Amino acid sequence: MAVSVSAAAPEAGSSIPITLPPDVRLISDLAATVPTGDPVRGLFDVRFPVGVRLRNATPGEPGSLTGSTWLMASAPDGPGWQPIGSWGELAGPARTAGRGGLTLLWFAAGASDAFAVHNARDGAPWLIHVRRGQAPEVVRLDEFDPAGHAPPVAVAAIDWCAEVRHPSYRPGGRTEPC
After folding, report:
1. Hey, how many other C-beta atoms are within 10 angstroms of the C-beta on 162?
2. Each residue of 69-94: b (16+ CB within 10 Å) or e?
3. DSSP of 63-128, one letter per residue?
4. Nearest partner of 97 among 78, 120, 79, judged by Cα
């Protein structure tokens, strides 16, 4: 069941208790501050205000330095983005982002909503749906009903260290902290 979450409190009259893990609540609260305009870019900017870099990028290539332009300007075909054909394929890239990571979803031109998957520290992936002028909706990924939503065309899996993990990345290689 999806819950609408606002930065201040649950909607008046709601009988749904909001029992989100603290880190999921934090990301949801950040999503509630997304300014008007492009909600995908807004969500990216509030979560990664300094930007991100591409893990194992070649020096001098896009993504080798921390920033945001290289990722957002190259969507959905550029470095860091991986194609996806259905909602059912989302779990793999979300796992790649790892605990504390955020997977951005990119949709065909004209989409007015933003979706992202935040991997909670307990390992559960949570889908965050951001719509202009409304509180974000948050639901566990395995409980999301995609009916009425076109599938994303690409995703960018970003770990808790603000590194974009591309499809060839294999989890388990990190031994040092950020």
Report:
1. 18
2. ebbbeebbebbbbbebeebeebeebb
3. TSSSBSHHHHHTTTTSTT-EE--SGGGSHHHHHHH-TT-EEEEE-STT---EEEEEE-TTS-EEEE
4. 120
Question: Distance (Å, rounded) from C-alpha 72 to C-alpha 86?
Answer: 21
* Omega of the bond leading into 76 within 30 degrees of 0 (cis): yes
147: buried, middle or exposed (CB in 10 Å: 19+, 13-18, 0-12)? exposed
pLDDT in tens, the chain (178 residues): 555 554 334 444 443 445 889 999 999 998 888 877 788 888 899 899 999 999 988 899 999 999 989 998 888 988 999 999 899 999 999 988 999 999 999 998 767 788 999 999 888 999 999 887 788 999 999 999 999 888 999 999 999 999 999 765 444 444 445 6
Taking alpha carbons only, the member of 128, 110, 109 closest to residue 118 is 128
The pTM assigned to this predicted structure is: 0.83
Structure tokens at 42: 């807004």
14: how many CB neighbours lie within 10 A of its CB? Answer: 11
The three-state secondary structure class of 40 is helix
| DSSP one-letter code for 149 | S
3-state secondary structure of 30: helix
